[in-house]
Amino acid sequence: NAGVTQTPKFRVLKTGQSMTLLCAQDMNHEYMYWYRQDPGMGLRLIHYSVGEGTTAKGEVPDGYNVSRLKKQNFLLGLESAAPSQTSVYFCASRIMGVSYEQYFGPGTRLTVT
Amino acid sequence: AQSVTQPDIHITVSEGASLELRCNYSYGATPYLFWYVQSPGQGLQLLLKYFSGDTLVQGIKGFEAEFKRSQSSFNLRKPSVHWSDAAEYFCAVVRPSGGSYIPTFGRGTSLIVHP
Question: Looking at residue A86, what DSSP letter applies?
């Protein structure tokens, strides 16, 4: 049981390049989330999904797109990376129901130059 | 709009000393409250949570937190800190939003432990 995994762990992009971050969970969780973490800002929600084939915007969705084609995977895309997207990205998942506990992946550190 | 405030950006304690990390929230109804810990280079891990009932909740690693409705607070405590407790601590509040229960995180408190 790997929990929540994220690929890649580190990435450096040039401004304007695109990339996709992959989040995978093996706990059969319905809900999945993408956050970014910046110094002094805590975690800010980018997008989330309440089930396969559904996505919704969070607090800071601009410049990002997501897809949830399979229940276990949640992809975060940057179509045209900007230096302001330099951050650590965390994926989280949780089961539907009253627990509300989120399980987090180890993070992806992205630098855009 | 709801918010979560962690007033202390950094806290330094000596190993063996007691610890209290503060968390205040603004929300119109009784929220669900969480404390998470983030060790360096890691994702977040749940320490404890409060939904209802007894206002003093016990968590993992010897942590506890007390919900005080009158003060809109959910402070995290530990009677004796260990060097391995050095980490970033986040308070979070869950609010209902179309049924998806979106969490809001505080900005975090960095705990430094001196030997």
Answer: -
